[in-house]
Design brief:
Layout (H helix, E strand, L loop, with lengths): L1 H16 L5 H19 L1 H20 L2 E3 L12 H8 L6 E6 L7 H12 L3 E7 L2 E8 L5 H11 L6 H14 L1 H14 L12 H29 L11 H21 L13 H17 L2 E3 L9 H16 L6 E5 L12 H12 L3 E6 L6 E10 L1 H6 L3 H4 L3 H5 L5 H14 L2 E7 L9 H5 L9 H12 L1 H20 L9 H4 L6 H18 L6 H14 L14 H18 L19 E6 L7 E6 L1 H9 L10 E4 L5 E4 L15 H12 L3
Parallel strand pairs: 1-2, 2-3, 5-6, 6-7
Antiparallel strand pairs: 3-4, 7-8, 8-9, 10-11, 12-13
Amino acid sequence: MRAVTTNNACTAGIRATSNSRRRVPGVLLALFALTALFATATPAVAADTPTLAAYLADRLRENPVHVTDQLPREVPRSTALDLARIAKKTGVPTYVLVLPMQSSTDGRQLLGAVHDRLGRDGLYVRFEGPDIAEARAFGVDAPADAAVTVTQYELPYDAGPLRSFERFAAVIAQGGEKAAARAEAAREKYPDDEPAEMYIGPSDRQNQSFITGILLTGVPLTILLLAVYAGRGRPKKPVLRPVVWGAALLSAAAVALTATVVFDQTRSSAAQPPTPADLSARVERVAAGLKQDPVYADPESPRVLDARQLDRLHERIRDFRRSDGGGPVYVSLVPQTPESESAGDSGLFAAAVHAKVGEDGVYVVADPDDGTIDAYNHGLRLDGNRLSFDMPDSVTLGDSRADEAGDHLLGERLDALMTFLDDTPRTDRPWSEPAPPAAPSAAGETALPPLFSTDFWPGLFVGAFAALLLSSVVAGATWILRALRRRRSPAPEPSGSLPLTAPTEPSVSYLRRTAYAELTALTAEFSAPDDRGRAWDHLDAALLLVDGDPGRVRQPGTDAATLVAVIVLARAGRAALAGDPADLCCGVNPLHGPATRRHHVRVSAERNHRRLLPVCRLCGDTAVAEPGGIPARLLKLPDPSLGNTRVPYYDMTDGPLTAVPNGIARLIDKVRETAGVH
């Protein structure tokens, strides 16, 4: 629109001056070409920037520092006070925007648009989360580009927003000449890398605790053992004199004191702990919007519904509300990220919004960033199981067309969701989603465990073993003998340890040993007459896969997918015999054992592709706390059709293993269908 206005103004100017008739067509043609190029090159920017800029200008009119409420775990809104304090050090009027990642918006153009709408000169700074991404000076003398460069080069990525803004403001205050020289020096000092990280993670703290434990026992015990060695053969004199004991105790005290001074970190991140108000701000904003309009589009996110699609969605919502057994539908077009108050759990977000809105209905959470759609029934007479488990992937996750589209085809898919709701069976009584588990503690996420905890205790034993060399040798020999005995006489592993020990890319030899151990154990336990009603189907299906001979799993020729199916069936059969039947096993890795629930999990590391799978407790926790960790936990098997390239087990084209995500019963049916048994 802005390009068309420019074109019209230029055309009028050409006519007014009447330079040359021959030049007019050429100039017009060039202007039209530039207009077309701008419209096709950055459609999202042209569509989203004016609306977003107007919204941000209103926020800055209220307060010169605006911190988004979408990142309370990373940059709480309460950080605005500290940012405003630092902004005064620049010496010029400074306006600060802390926003989520804006992949579809040109940051430099956005700051210009915000300045135009606010109408105030000054230094405009845009953060993307905790990082300074862009800064521009309008009507004031401030070396914005040099300050951004210094901040990006001199500080590590985990410096945090306050430390980064402190450095930025200090460079601005230096003036243009000194700031430019400092920026050039920073580029030369860190051409390819960046300064060392400022914070350590939980694994680093575990290593520190482990080292401290080793030294705390290893050093004193080494002193004592050396004293014993030096005093051997002197039975009439004390082997360990008081001075030796004193030296040992003094060394232990020195190790403990030095460790507390050297390993003095207490937090794993620069993020400030959010207040309760920080964690509830976005939910309250969305709930307030939904009370006014059943469709709430986040103003800081890309617009994914045009006017026609919005009208269509409102019409469908009104029709559903008036339908028999229907009711209100609330649609939140809000991104769900790990840095949000709900840690990316859309169910938890929907439950919180429902509590704030105070009205029962279907609460839909549509993510404009990754395009996922989740729907939760809170109090309507709808079949909750159908809503939870039968919604098509084309609605919840989209297809390849949705992945390629900038708006993820959310308008089309939300319309399909309303059709699904219309067709959902009604129930006699209202149905509500069970209360979701609470989000992880925001303060606990960044707090490091105490030094004398976690791996400190194992470190004590390792230090003792290092000092007592003979004990270490004995322990190692014992471990080797036990490992050899387990290899010769394999026994099934306890089900509770499977999510921790099961490999993601198992070797064929491992699968053969495990399948033989599980199948022989099931056969041995299958003796009582009443066992046939509980686990016969599992044993029968497992034996069908090996032609009735458990020994075949140890022989060459049985492929990896068949061995995994045997393991899953045998374990499910043993669980049924033990009185603990479960129809679902972990869909991320069937070797993990029983599943506790279904969850949308990320199954691709290259793109944000999700799939509804049953998950064990550990995979479920990973899907919530670290969604990007799920692809690495997927069971991958060699596919003979692809030259034994490993692929996720559910992508195997042959064999019954692809039925695992649908339950054990479906796996049994698939085995029988494959074997031609009815």
